[in-house]
Write a structure and sequence with these properties.
Blueprint: E1 2-6, H1 9-26, E2 31-34, H2 38-53, E3 62-65, E4 67-69, H3 80-89, E5 99-100, H4 109-123, E6 126-131, E7 153-156, H5 159-169, E8 178-181, H6 184-188, E9 193-197, H7 203-211, E10 229-234
């Protein structure tokens, strides 16, 4: 595992975006996995800026999202489909037929999980999976306690996120909001992983995930076992780690 620390927020976003741009340039017909959230949104914006200044071939690129919210509209601005479509797919000129996502509505989400895995396997392997990390160590919707052997599944929504989505979408109380996510086993099968984190609120979980025991209580800790994982942090997210613990400092 290689750990790189950026000195400023702008440098953090640009450093991560350049890593992705370089991988795409080297593997323009490969499969790339993206995540949504506050951290990755800034990285996506920086990647689009790089693309606009130094265009690279995206015509053969296939992209997908790590997870999706169930039982909301794809037009909901908080759906993973909507965010990646508007943050990456359209701005980078990626053909929409090369954008793979599970549906937000289905009468059989177990089947959708298997279909999603099969669709990715047909285009795979995953050349690069970009991951954010939750303050409790979750990756995707794989919350603490998720099995390291899990494949695509539908997890329960975090109560705080559940409440926010219901407010924003007007979802009725009986609507079953969940998180259809690739499992930890799927994630670990990616050829390369880029984990990104910024902000002081991530400092403790970053230390736990990268230097603590590998445990299902901290899902991201499994990344210690991946053969090709890079971590990019800003100084605040790296605040609880000592210099000698970094594999590489920017």
């Amino acid at each position: 595992m290689t750990i790189t620390v950026a000195n400023t927020e702008k440098e953090f976003y640009n450093l991560a975006a350049w890593r992705i741009a370089e991988e795409i340039s080297n593997k323009p017909d490969a499969l790339f996995g993206f995540s949504t959230g506050r951290t990755t949104g800034g990285i996506h914006a920086a990647l689009v800026e790089i693309y606009n200044r130094y265009p690279f071939d995206t015509s053969r690129l296939t992209v997908f999202g790590l997870d999706e919210i169930t039982n909301v509209s794809r037009d909901y601005f908080g759906s993973c489909y909507y965010m990646l479509l508007n943050e990456l797919v359209k701005p980078l000129g990626i053909p929409v037929e090369n954008y793979i996502m599970p549906p937000t509505h289905s009468n059989n989400f177990l089947r959708e999980c298997r279909d999603y895995e099969n669709a990715l396997s047909a285009r795979g392997p995953v050349a690069l999976q970009i991951l954010g990390i939750g303050e409790n160590g979750h990756i995707g919707f794989n919350q603490p306690g998720s099995s390291f052997g899990s494949t695509a599944w539908v997890s329960k929504m975090d109560p705080e996120l559940d409440s926010r989505i219901r407010r924003e979408t007007g979802s009725p109380p009986d609507a079953d909001l969940g998180g259809l996510t690739l499992g930890i086993k799927n994630i670990m099968q990616s050829k390369k992983i880029l984990l990104v984190a910024n902000g002081e609120r991530k400092a403790q979980i970053i230390r736990d995930a990268l230097l603590g025991p590998v445990t299902e209580k901290v899902p991201a800790s499994v990344l210690q076992l991946h053969p090709d994982c890079e971590v990019i942090l800003d100084t605040e997210a790296a605040g609880k780690m000592r210099d000698e613990e970094f594999g590489r400092r920017n």
